[in-house]
């Protein structure tokens, strides 16, 4: 039974997206740089262990570079605009005088440790969320993701697949153009004219090739009937509209109560009214999708079944996010939000280590990618 469970196969794309989004929710609930760096390491570990040989899988490093760029940009903005917020001054830059009517903005000047740390924590949190999304994009097959979507979301799914596959196509095009330049033994750019030639021979072919491949993907999906809807009766349209309006109204009321911290009846620290509104809104949305999906008639070649490995994958992500929320409400919240004023060294406590261990389980307790894809990756 255990050997059959670990037979190489491709996991359901919804499982990887559920795990990654849950990890992103956990990352959005903390500014602890040690925990955020651990989540990035977990995302890299799971991606390297369970990705296949495909263009979208190879583009994961682009998300890492994007995350690094976000951190550097966020810290740079804190240094350039108002970097002196704090008593611990690291260094002083020559301040640029601004007009009187520009109040509250300062260019350069003193740079404090507190301002740099604030920019670092915020940038690292956003970078972690983006890397989690990149991990989902590298692990899940976008075509299988579109094929697994409900019929009511097929038109939106087509747009999403083309948009999500644009960055992987860009990375694949960059690799192919770089290999072609190496085979041609292109000389190194020394003069300005040669540098402009590099732009013409690398950037322009990469962008045009990525655009053409994305358009070809959209055209192939249109030819195969993706996004086409059948006929719907007046009763189905009325039911879809009613369930949709009810879902938006219930979720809007729940959002207002949640953001406004409205009084509620608590049972075991669970808000009863807000929970009922959330459940009713989600149920109405599912009913609307189910009724609307009746108009789409489609078949799927060799669909990916939802099995125990998918449940474990999503469960580990949800458990990690739930543990972070539990620490924020009932545990030591200072571990999730280390103090900057005054500065306090961040700590990685036992519960936070448990979050990382739980989130990293899919790298070990899920089947490896399919055997042909794995052999191509090793080659």
From TrEMBL:
<protein>
    <submittedName>
        <fullName>CbiQ family ECF transporter T component</fullName>
    </submittedName>
</protein>
<keyword id="KW-0812">Transmembrane</keyword>
<feature type="transmembrane region" description="Helical">
    <location>
        <begin position="268"/>
        <end position="288"/>
    </location>
</feature>
<feature type="transmembrane region" description="Helical">
    <location>
        <begin position="152"/>
        <end position="171"/>
    </location>
</feature>
<dbReference type="InterPro" id="IPR003339">
    <property type="entry name" value="ABC/ECF_trnsptr_transmembrane"/>
</dbReference>
<keyword id="KW-0472">Membrane</keyword>
<feature type="transmembrane region" description="Helical">
    <location>
        <begin position="308"/>
        <end position="328"/>
    </location>
</feature>
<feature type="transmembrane region" description="Helical">
    <location>
        <begin position="60"/>
        <end position="80"/>
    </location>
</feature>
<feature type="transmembrane region" description="Helical">
    <location>
        <begin position="238"/>
        <end position="256"/>
    </location>
</feature>
<dbReference type="Pfam" id="PF02361">
    <property type="entry name" value="CbiQ"/>
</dbReference>
<keyword id="KW-1133">Transmembrane helix</keyword>
<feature type="transmembrane region" description="Helical">
    <location>
        <begin position="16"/>
        <end position="48"/>
    </location>
</feature>
<feature type="transmembrane region" description="Helical">
    <location>
        <begin position="348"/>
        <end position="366"/>
    </location>
</feature>
